[in-house]
Amino acid sequence: MKLQISTWLQNLGIACSIASFFTLFFRLTEFEWVTKSVYHIPVFFVVVFLLGLVLAEDVRKVFKKIFLYEKRKDQRPIWQIGIGLIFFLAQIGVVMVFSTELTQPTLGGMPLFLVFAFMNAFIMTVIYEEVFYRKDKTNELNSH
């Protein structure tokens, strides 16, 4: 059950990232009319998010094959980077689409929303690992 929820959360993050970045790209071009909002939610975002949910599983599998995830002896580090990147990109995409006013403040020249997204992604990755991979850790400690 935990594995299904884990996969579902990863797919949601990937779909959110895809939808956010496509919406942002269209908003920056002359096709901005495609991204009209209803109740502050771009209709294009919703459509691409639903399509992204269909594609997310395939995207995850492709990245696993590209990085030879199944053949690695220690699969944990690349998994942690992957889930952290999903969290990071989803947060950035949501801010860029739904709260563009938050992209203005800077911290030493770097946009502040990137700093917060990085910190949140790190914390969310740690929490995610504690929730979904706690059993592996206790088995590892007991074997030593």
Which tags fit this structure?
144 residues, mainly alpha, two-stranded antiparallel sheet, two-stranded antiparallel ribbon
Query: What is the molecular shape?
Result: globular
Q: Could you state the oligomeric state of the chains shown?
A: single chain
What integer value in Å does the Rg equal?
A: 18 Å
Q: Give the structural class.
A: mainly alpha
Question: How many angstroms separate the termini?
Answer: 28 Å
Number of strands: 4
Low-confidence stretches: none
User: What percent of residues are in strands?
Assistant: 5-15%
Strand order of the largest sheet: 1-2
Largest sheet: 2 strands, antiparallel
H and E string: HEEHHEEHH
Tally of contiguous helical segments: 5
What's the mean pLDDT score? 82
Q: Helix proportion of residues, in percent?
A: over 70%
